[in-house]
Design goal:
This protein has 292 residues and is α/β, with parallel strands linked by helices. It folds into 2 domains: 42 residues, no CATH class; 239 residues, Alpha-Beta Barrel (TIM Barrel), CATH 3.20.20.370. The strands form 3 sheets. Strands 3, 4, 5, 8, 9 and 10 form a 6-stranded parallel β-sheet that branches. A two-stranded antiparallel sheet has the order 1-2. Helix 8 packs parallel to helix 10. The protein is globular and about 40 Å long. Bound molecules: zinc ion. The site of zinc ion has 6 residues, from loops.
Length: 292
């Protein structure tokens, strides 16, 4: 039976064979087989419409502390996408560390060559193409996800991002949990940083993210405390469906002493009945595609 709500419903794939990754149910079983904290205990999903209940994470700037984030994610059966620039004014993970992130089950995405905002940048195409090629050469796999450096983007960049071969580009738009979105303007639920209300409002207005602002007020009680906000979003998705997408900077988590806060939130996200734990590109391939 299809459950009605403000989010789209879709037909899940039939119960699959562990290891298949082209259908939602199969990915779910794969994650169950991978380790603790990931499964729901459901034996089959069937073809009935089910609420889309997804958690993903993404981490920007490729700082060496990304390894610590990835290990925490893996500990709780979670996953995510790490957006790595080739160079930055902060330390950047080396080749072996990038491979280690991949080995831990994380997706590697591009964050440009020089971490420069692309809006109005003459070298924007080069930043997109060259960073993708360098990461693909290192990893030996396709890099299909991009994250706009410093969160700056406008619609004029979308054709460039598509032409460079990316299938999604993540923004910093917050408080968005819906399954319908433009993959090259992928929104998030919130940044893992203790912003105060005024900052959230400023960001939303500056990014013309009025729907996110409205959701924050209407559904999440303008909550700022990270664990409480996470719980409100999880409860919302548990009853109405949606995508829970946390993003952040590992260097900021360390600088702000947020490691235990992060672990508490990840613990809370793990083991949610019915939730799928996906990378950003898996979200677009499997959920975004179904919802469009
Ligand atoms: Zn960045």
């Amino acid at each position: 039976m299809l459950r009605k709500g403000s989010f789209e419903t879709f037909a899940w794939a039939p119960a699959g064979v562990p290891g298949e990754r082209n259908e939602l149910g199969a990915v779910h079983f794969q994650r169950e087989a991978d380790g603790p904290g990931s499964g729901t205990g459901e034996a089959r999903c069937g073809r009935q419409g089910r609420l889309v209940q997804v958690a993903t994470t993404s981490w920007d700037d490729g700082h060496p502390f990304d390894l610590r984030v990835a290990e925490l994610l893996a500990k709780y059966g979670l996953t995510g996408t790490f957006y790595v620039p080739i160079t930055n004014d902060r330390p950047v993970v080396k080749a072996a560390e990038i491979r280690r992130l991949q080995h831990l089950g994380m997706e590697i995405g591009s964050h440009g060559v020089t971490h420069s905002p692309l809006v109005g940048l003459p070298a924007a195409r080069h930043e997109l193409v060259e960073s993708k090629a360098r990461l693909e050469e290192l990893l030996g796999t396709e890099v299909s996800s991009f994250c706009y450096p410093k969160g700056k983007f406008d619609r004029s960049l979308l054709p460039l991002v598509k032409e460079a071969g990316y299938r999604l580009a993540r923004t910093t738009a917050s408080f968005r949990v819906g399954v319908k979105f433009n993959p090259w303007m992928m929104p998030t639920s919130f940044q893992f940083y203790p912003h105060v209300r005024r900052t959230h409002i400023k960001h939303a207005l500056r990014g013309a993210n009025l729907s996110g602002l409205a959701s924050w007020v209407r559904f999440f009680g303008m909550e700022c405390e990270l664990l409480t906000l996470s719980e409100r979003i999880i409860e919302h998705i548990a009853s109405r469906g949606g995508i829970f997408h946390i993003w952040g900077h590992s260097w900021e988590i360390d600088a702000c002493g947020l490691w235990s806060a992060l672990e508490n939130v990840l613990k809370r996200i793990a083991n949610q009945p019915g939730f799928l734990y996906l990378t950003n590109s898996e979200v677009v391939q499997q959920v975004g595609g179904c919802a469009s």
